[in-house]
Amino acid sequence: DQQVKQNSPSLSVQEGRISILNCDYTNSMFDYFLWYKKYPAEGPTFLISISSIKDKNEDGRFTVFLNKSAKHLSLHIVPSQPGDSAVYFCAASAFNNDMRFGAGTRLTVKP
Amino acid sequence: KAGVTQTPRYLIKTRGQQVTLSCSPISGHRSVSWYQQTPGQGLQFLFEYFSETQRNKGNFPGRFSGRQFSNSRSEMNVSTLELGDSALYLCASRDVRGGEKLFFGSGTQLSVL
Lengths: 111, 113
Description:
The complex is a heterodimer. By secondary structure, chain A is mainly β. In chain A, 0% of the residues lie in helices and 55% in strands. Chain A has no helices and eleven strands. In chain A, strands 2, 4, 5, 9, 10 and 11 form a six-stranded mixed beta sheet that branches. In chain A, a hairpin with a 2-residue loop joins β6 and β7. Chain A is globular, with a radius of gyration of 13 Å. The mean pLDDT of chain A is 94. By secondary structure, chain B is mostly beta strands. Chain B has strands at residues 5-7, 10-13, 19-24, 31-38, 42-50, 53-57, 64-68, 74-78, 87-94, 103-104, 108-112. The model of chain B has no long low-confidence stretch (mean pLDDT 93). The chains are: A mainly beta, B mainly beta.
């Protein structure tokens, strides 16, 4: 069962513009959400996270928004840079349970 | 600190064989999780070990098993390999005192012919 869904397999944006990656989840017990970035031939690396008590978390060019009522979160990258080109995974977990990942969105930032 | 180390990096096996993958977590991390990554499916959770005990298990057949040693190193075993087992297998460790963040290794790319 796919409890975390990323419905866009790919996204292409121009350098300097905003990238918005979306993620939906079905399990209302999830209370912690993360975004990971993955380059080819490497493991995923942690990017940013948010707990369910917040609706926004910012770290430099990256901002994650959480809408609990809609069970939706999004990652905004502003401004987008060519080095941001990678696969982005959304992940969610409930206390003391395993972390579930989405299928990933491949972001391409064009110079 | 050294990161999560997975060996081997690549493996080629034939159907019916078995395989063992190894993972050394970050020093001090006692939780180790395993994930399978296939194109279009994202990361599918296999299992998590903490203090040598399996804490959580995903929806994989019994051919997939794992264990954790007293030094927190973990191994994953797949018996009677099938073509569909071809995937990137990722290991991740976590400091349970430091929240939910997982630290991943580079993975083992398994090809079953």
